[in-house]
Amino acid sequence: MKFKIYKYIAGFFSIAILTTSCVDNEDLVQVDPNNDAVDSFWKSDQDALEGLNAAYGSLLTDGTYMRSTPLLLDLKGDDCRSNSPWDAMYNVGRFNSNVSNAAIYGWAYETYYQGIYRANQVLTNVPGINFENNELKNRILGQAYFLRGLFLFHAVNMFKNVPVPTEIAAIYPQKTQAEGWAQVIADFKKAAELLPTAYTNVTGLDAGQKGRATKGAALGYLGKAYLFTKDFPNARDTFKQVIDLGVYSLMSNYRDNFTDTNENNAESLFEVQFSRDAGGVDLGWGGAPASGWGKTSARAITYAPRAFGWTDVQPTWTLYNEYQLEKTTANTIDPRLDATMFYNKPGGMQLYGQNFATFYAGNPGDLNDLFCRKYQNSDGNYANEFDWRSGINERLLRYADILLMYAECLNETGNTAGAYTYIQMVRGRVGLPNLATVKPNMTQAQMRDQIGHERFLEFPLEGHRFDDIRRWGWLEDTAKLAWLKSRDVEFNSYAAGREYFPIPQLEMDNNPGTSQNSGY
């Protein structure tokens, strides 16, 4: 069962770091005399798996996918906006995060390095454990490489020049972004070598467990790392390896990717496992794990429609309008619109057992506004999101993304004609007409813009749009930046360098020699 992945050790990772001016690094790591876990642990395959599960645990807290990381990934894109009364959240999308207030982005930074530390514990200690099942050992190490790569991927992608820890130490010097990406690539390569395509046909403590990293997930993220560093030939070949695995396909119902039904489906390469039924009822805000923590997400309440949650995030009208540009072959609106947002739809739309038009009839502002539907428990089983306990898994990487990234790589390596096939697979799922018929013989530049449009409609509110904007160089292109400003007024406050978050002040204080990102 997927819930087994949630078991991890409280207190095991406690270390006290004492610094003076005349000690070696090894003298800085002191074992808590009241906690003998470090001495007694790392003896068995069960210890190894539990240590690995602790690294997975860092995906579940507020700094990562319980709440903060989706916000940081989403809010800078032109697909969503925020009018949150909380300035730390409101300012993310306006490129105005405050160096003196590390709320949200600082929590994410801290948790990424907590996850890296936990993965490094596994990679340091597990090789010395004698396993009866060596394949299990390799899978545990492969997952640790994957998780370290994933946490570092986020750190490098969002904070640019960051430490790159590959071993246990007290101080990790700041590295260049290129050095960070090189380590991300190395970790995902190693993970892909060690991981299985699935856990259904393996033996050992992890047999049959869903939610664990697989070869496909490692290859998918390896391809993304190549793509983000503009290594299009390697990205192309890596994405093709994912396709050739033959284990992934698109779900016929697009919305199955964003609810608590049909989780870990054939379209999902990797998702963070949340559940109302696992753990306690407390929220995992961060710090040392507590026995009362649940394994639920606060994304739903944060993004929820007015009166059903906090409404801190909303879709843009630009996104709504772009869904209107092309009808399906049945002459209907793209079904991804209704799967993505709530609006005053002619003929009616239901949310949390209520009719949209009736529920908001007394408030014209809300009646004529747009609200998030992705990742909402809104199909009638729950009255609202105010219990803070969403069990919907966060889908980090979908097969649709692999197909469109592969198409992009084909276009960038001179095979624009070949890109049509893979774009149409994604379009065809929602009934859009054949792109080769409606827009034949596009140039490479035209195809780039088309892929931008296709990705905009396929992945809104999934944390991909701003990553695309930044890596495509649109912020440095005067015409593209003006276009973005016309689509989303939040881009009016963009300044060079603000495409990255600031290095948290605590990191600046505690890690000598750390330089702040430009623009702050």
Automatic annotation (TrEMBL):
The keyword Transit peptide does not apply. The keyword Ion transport does not apply. Keywords: Cell outer membrane, Membrane, Signal. CDD domains: SusD. InterPro entries: SusD-like_N, SusD_RagB_dom, TPR-like_helical_dom_sf. One of its GO terms (cellular component) is cell outer membrane. It is found in: Cell outer membrane. Residues 89-227 form the SusD-like N-terminal domain. Residues 267-520 form the RagB/SusD domain. Its main location: membrane. Gene3D superfamilies: 1.25.40.390. Belongs to the SusD family. This is Membrane protein. It comes from Flavobacterium glycines.
